[in-house]
Amino acid sequence: MCNVAVAQTLVVEKTDGPVTKNEISAFKSFIKGYNPNDWQIGGNIWVFGAPGKAIEACGLMYEATQDPEILDRMIFYCDRALASRNDLAPANIGGQLKTWTGNINPVWPSNRTVPAGAGIEQGSVLAHLAFCSKLILQNPSIWNKEVGIGDAHHFGATYKERALKYIQEADYVMDKWIIPNFVRIADRNRLYFPGAPNTYKPNEPAPWNQLFMVTNGLIRLTECHFLLKDQTDRVKRYDEIVQPNLDWFLSSLKKDTSVLNTPVYQFDYAMGSRSEDANHFAYDVEGLWIAYNTGRYGIKFNDLIPFANTYVDVILANKQANGKFIGMLNGKSTTGNMGGDNYVRDEYFYLADFRPDKFELMVDINQKANNVASFLPATARILWQKNRRYKASLK
User: Are residues 191 and 58 both part of a single domain?
Assistant: First the structure.
């Protein structure tokens, strides 16, 4: 849970033009009350929970505004994330737990069972930390300035020192947890869960959404090393994991046509599994966009149009009797993750790049679902996206 005062509400004044002074002010007021002091270790909170989403939201809004207060709040969340890593956090706040390896590993346990749960989803936390580092490294003018919120955790007094610390620790998790446990070298570096003593999906391929959590971390760390012009061997190693896994996902796609006669894709939740659902599809979209945005992995603009069509012309074009959009790519719905939503998940706003005609519709859906004033991750992406659209219109 998070501590957010009712009076603090997010604002989207309009869906065109640059992000406005009132929108920025409302965002800054909101995140000041979005306090991770009440967030407990566990439950994947730094993976896809409210704290992890807050890091992404601040990063996107900093991209749009270059407001140093927003960057400082992003750093505040990143500091809390790093300080709560299992091997760094003291036992009295939930750290020092043994995982299925029998060791106290550098992870953010998904649960506090015995042994503590942890898997491939850890890559998402690394992606959040590397996003912050990337934003700092892109702005050399702030490198030698002291971070506005201080350095309570001794992670580095200046912005560059803080960025380097996040990169160092994220690379460490890649080296000590992700790569040795989940990269199957004998199968083209594809991402699999290990066998015993791991009990979660032993020897199964990673679901696509979790695969993208790893590639997101690897890609953003690679971007940081490019900015630093260092560790070329590490960059090469990371690319040798990212590319075959992206290719693996793309090879699983089945071409289809929507009822609106637009090209779409069908694919499964994991290789050989059931149809992908609208919940996890959002993370697939995020991973694809992050890879595409680098221009380095062979994914082109036109390659992502069918994914956008799949969301707007299949998912959003079909409603169930309960008012929710359908929950699966095959046009069906069941329960749980496959039950559908009555709103647009934050990651889907990346797709407005490829179906700009549906941006206003997506915003309208969230407004009607009352998911603007308090839905931080989606509202931040709305503001970021509309600002991008405005800047593109000036070219």
Answer: yes
What's the mean pLDDT when you consider all of the chain? Answer: 95
Q: Using DSSP, state whether 392 is helix, strand or coil.
A: helix
What six digits make up the tokens of 375?
């839905």
Q: Are 169 and 129 in contact (CB under 8 A)?
A: yes
Last residue of a domain, one of 327, 342, 357: 342
Query: pTM of the predicted model, to two decimals?
Result: 0.96
Residues 178 and 303 in one domain: no
In a domain, 11, yes or no: no
- Which residue range(s) make up the domain with 316? 252-342
What is the pLDDT at residue 167?
99
Say yes or no: 300 and 327 in one domain.
yes
Asked whether the bond before 306 is cis by omega within 30 degrees of 0, the reply is no
- 328 with 289, same domain? yes
- Is position 353 within any domain? no
Q: What is the pLDDT of residues 14-39, one digit of tens each?
A: 999 999 999 999 999 999 988 865 56
3-state secondary structure of 255: strand
Please indicate, yes or no, whether residues 193 and 297 belong to a single structural domain of this protein. Answer: no
Pair of tokens at residue 198: 């791991």
The tens digit of pLDDT for each residue in 87-141 reads 999 998 889 999 999 999 999 999 888 999 999 999 999 999 999 999 999 999 9
CB 227 within 8 A of CB 220: no
Same domain, 228 and 277: no
Question: Do 136 and 282 belong to one domain?
Answer: no
Phi first, then psi, for residue 15 (nearest 5°) are: -100, 5
Whether the pLDDT of residue 297 is over 80: the answer is yes
Q: Does the bond joining 197 to the residue before it have cis omega, within 30 degrees of 0? A: yes
Distances in Å between the Cα of 284 and the Cα atoms of 17, 60, 208 are 29, 18, 7
d(CA 307, CA 267): 11
Same domain, 207 and 333: no
CB 214 within 8 A of CB 227: no
Residue 350 lies in a domain: no
- What pLDDT band is residue 1 in, cutting at 50, 70 and 90? very low
DSSP state of 334: -
